[in-house]
Amino acid sequence: MQLLSVLRSRQQNLSAAAQEAMTSLPQVLINVSIQGGITPQNLLNENRGVISEVEQLLKGMGRVLVRASGTEPLVRVMVEAQTSAEAQKYAEHIANALSHPSSEQGR
After folding, report:
1. Which residues form the Alpha-D-phosphohexomutase C-terminal domain (predicted)?
2. Confidence (pTM)
3. What is the domain range of residue 79?
4. Which of 31, 72, 79, 93 has its CA 20 to 30 A from that of 14?
């Protein structure tokens, strides 16, 4: 009810209000193949620091999602940032860390 009241007072429809409220950011998705017998969960756990580092660098002006694929031996890295270049840089940074696991992983 309150939403309808606000829309009416602004003389705005729901789609216009949603478009105004939601900012679309450039997004990059990189799939990282899992090799060497390491489990996706172990790979993610080993790289929590890198993922947190990128989240801090974004300073709340973007988003990071890293998850194991449910159907393939992949980890999916998705980064949204203010610019396409920034999203690409951070996604590649995480993907590189995932692609080059430490020698102690999986042991």
Report:
1. 30-96
2. 0.76
3. 24-99
4. 79
